[in-house]
Structure formats: C-alpha cells, structure tokens
Amino acid sequence: MTAAVCLFCVLDLSEPWKPLHNVSRPLIIYSASGAVGSFAIQLARLSKIHPIIAVAGNAKEHVEQLIDSSKGDVVCDYRNGNETLVREIQKVLGATGHQNIEVAQDCISEEAKGSHPNIIKVLHPRGHICLVPNYDPQEIPPQMTQIRATVRWVHQNINSYAGVCIGPVDAPSLTDSETGCREFGYIMFRFFTRALEKGLLKGHPYKVAVGGLGSVQSALEDLKAVRASGIKYVVQIADTPRS
Predict the structure, then answer these.
(1) For labelling, which of 20, 33, 70, 119 has a CA lying 20 to 30 Å from the CA of 224?
(2) Which one has a higher pLDDT value, 199 or 178?
(3) What is the Cα–Cα distance from 112 to 115, expressed in whole angstroms?
(4) Do 71 and 47 form a contact (C-beta atoms < 8 A)?
C-alpha cells in the first residue's frame, strides 16, 4: 500500500486499471529490492509505466526478475559508486529520448546511501520525488517538490499535502480532495486481492526464522547489519521452544 500511495496519490501516475498506452514515462525506483520498491515495480508495470530505472545492490538479481527489459527497464547497481550510477541513469534516459526524469520514488531516503542526491542530479528542475517519512533533506532544490508519504495516509484519511510537502505542488490527485486516501485504500486493497489471485502481483520473498519468537533478536540484527537483502523474515510463534 505504501508503494501505491507514493505512485498514485503522490506522483499522480496512472493506476493499473487505466494504464498508459504508447507513452514513454521514465520512473526511478530507488532501493528497489525492498518490499516497497518491489511492489512499486510490479504496480508500475501493470500501469505500463516504462522505462523503470530500478536502483538496487545486494539483491540486484531479485529486482532483475521483476522488471521488463523489453520495455527498456533496467537495474542500476549503486555499489558501483554515485558517479557511475548517475551516468548509467543518464545513459538510459538518453536511449529513450529523455533529458531528465519527472518522477522518482525514493524507498530508502538515507543520506548515507546517497539516494536523493543521486536522484536530483537526473530529476527535472520541477520534478517530484516521493520520500519516506521522518526525513527532511535540505539540499533538494526548492523548485522541486518533495513529499514524505506513508501508508498511514490511508488509515487517517489524509486529503491534503499540508505538513508533508515541501516545494510547489501541481499534482491534483490528493490536494483538495474531498474523499482523501481512505477511499483510495478501499479500492486498492480489493485490487491487491484480485491481482494476487490472478497472478498479476507476486508476494515478497521471505525466510522463516528458525526458533519462533526466540529468533526475533537475531533477525533484527541481520536486518540492521544489512545481512539480509530483498527478503522479509517470518517468525512462526508455534516454533518457539517451550521453557
């Protein structure tokens, strides 16, 4: 749902039930191997948004299985360095006849990862970037629109960009809406069910942590140390050893 809010409420892209036709609209998805990024790729493909420029690292192979290279989609490896990454993105844009990109979804928003500094180097001067919450980068040019989106918009029925947007806003999908995100969520949750049943969406890869609740700490440590990429941990309570 976070991916859907970013793509369709914030970036104002076409929903899967009214996909683009014969239109090239590049989209950057940064940190594409995580759950949000992976579902963003799948939803963007259903909306026929291409080329998708997915940025990933350790779980690059997982992301390569999600994109459609025949439509110009590519995976760029951030481990090659920031300068190389930006050049690779610019090369993809040039090959599709674009000088820059209008929309980007930053699924990690960490300064140490260099996500938004790399994005703004290829973003249109008045482009839109969707960030994760509780992050307020100061170096994004004021003419660019940065919006910090979260799935709670659906539960709290957010219907205004107030307090979450910095910069000019010209995307009409959310601002001044009388219905807000709750109705959007009502529709999307039902679409997710249907898409999963029909095989249009695939669940995120997961690993069952051994030991039930006793494995929570080690799983969290693996995530913190980035020893697990492109997967979710599942803890089965029934597997917890009896004391």
Answers:
(1) 119
(2) 199
(3) 8
(4) no
